[in-house]
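Risk register update: the risk of archive-format incompatibility is retired. Evidence:
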Amino acid sequence: MRHFRWCHSSDWIAFRNEISIAEILGSYNPPSTQLPHFSAAPISPFSSRFPPPLSLNLRMNIGPFTLANNLFAAPMAGVTDRPFRQLCRQLGAGYAVSEMVTSRKDLWNTLKTSRRANHDGEAAPIAVQIAGTDAAMMAEAAAYNIDRGAQIIDINMGCPAKKVCNKWAGSALMQDEPLALQIVEAVVAACAPHNVPVTLKMRTGWSQSHKNAVTIARAAENAGVQMLTVHGRTREQGYKGHAEYDTIAAVKAAVRIPVVANGDINTPEKAREVLMYTGADAVMIGRAAQGHPWIFREIAHFLATGKYLAPPLVAEVKRLLLDHLEDHYALYGEFSGVRTARKHIGWYVKSLPDGAAFRDRMNRIEDCADQVAVVADFFDGLAVHTDRMPVSHVDVFSIEAEDDETRKEKAV
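Archived output:
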């Protein structure tokens, strides 16, 4: 059972003095002088054992682009469409990457791919992730997306989904290092005439016994890749277990280009500790932004000040979600829009009082106007009890691990 503390503006500071995030999570440990090992377990919420660096909220460059900060929104299939990317940027993300776009030319004109390639009104830099198994096709896909507005091309070697790995794309490419390098070299060559940077997202390896991220990172840097993102799990893990950060630290030590840490970064404290432990230049946040897109500004504030940002106003969250829904409907249309919006709404209300009952009711609605109306009513009802979003004493920021197939089933 979850217990909630209603957080009115006037008592937020008093509440923060009364109970810490670590106590809410039930995971506070007194500071130790021994450096913790992060390979198998999540990082402790507090990092007073570490001296703070001069700045953790750094601007950084990818090629000619200077990013607003080093907090990135991860590409997630079925999630990071253009409306969601813009929402994350609005709420503090310095960079956001598109959903994975296939290198198969026969699918480029499908409705699904056209929606994934939609960048209408999106602020620079526009980053598109491409996936495939053939070097020439990947090069052609890079050029195709550049012609349609892509300013950065990201190569997917990190997706663990079975439908991707069974075709030897995504993280499966890490099993075939020569092919992986051929793809990298072909994509870099296709992008170079356009002065478009190429980045690479990968995992620590295929399995616990086959961790080759450092080898691939060095080869990718030599081939011209300008930034690396490493998810701290193997393909074998999927999204189960815990991310480990030793491999990410090893990649950072092995290359000169920027390295981005990804995996299980779901609180401001965790972001700070991962940056400190790995030496990474940035962090990339995925599932923790689902239903909680303001996590980027919370982390930015914490890195800059060492203090927590108050929870957002209920009225603000209502407005953000309703605006997101309208943008979502405009991209997907009535029939698909009302259905694909359900997962986003469900993430927002998952840990809220009466959220489960509301989600069951909302999932039966098949009209956009009705969906907007019930969402507005739900948050209006919440605002009767509190002006700020309540803080759950369990699972404050966590998003349960789901494989791609589960997420896609929920999106239907």
